[in-house]
């Protein structure tokens, strides 16, 4: 185990995970001990997330060569965390990242982890997913039907049903640096 920790942000589609992380990133830019990781994904970046992207062939090559800290598949896409994040954790930093619940056991076996679930009611999640304009109606419904596993221990739960400021401040408090304007 190392001095730093991974802050694993999980939750269902449309809960606002990337928005809450983005709020904290923006308000904690001067914090040297917190890294807001960019995950790698096999789709173009959009307005809510600015991941590193690569095509599937390149992704699979990197994956087979051990080029990722972890990787997973969801919603017909491939996701990964850069291997460089291990160095940030070993340097004693908190590394905040949106991941799939399925990788929690693997990451807990290798690092000190703090798991934050971000959730919101289904009506609000439906509206958020629809506003992205990325999915067909059938794909939207499939995202809503998909349930996140509950066989992991959540260290904290943030309900993202009020203002983004409220949810973002809650995450910042969990990171040890609340921001008050």
What is the global morphology? globular
At the fourth level of CATH, the homologous superfamily is: P-loop containing nucleotide triphosphate hydrolases
Domain count: the total is 1
Order of helices and strands: EHEEEHEEHEHEHHEH
Record field, number of beta strands: 9
Determine the number of helices (DSSP H or I, runs of at least 4 residues). 7
Q: CATH fold name, please? A: Rossmann fold
CATH architecture name: 3-Layer(aba) Sandwich
Structural class: alpha/beta
Oligomer: single chain
Integer-rounded radius of gyration = 16 Å
- The unreliable regions are none
Provide a compact summary of the structure:
With 181 residues, the protein is of the alpha/beta class.
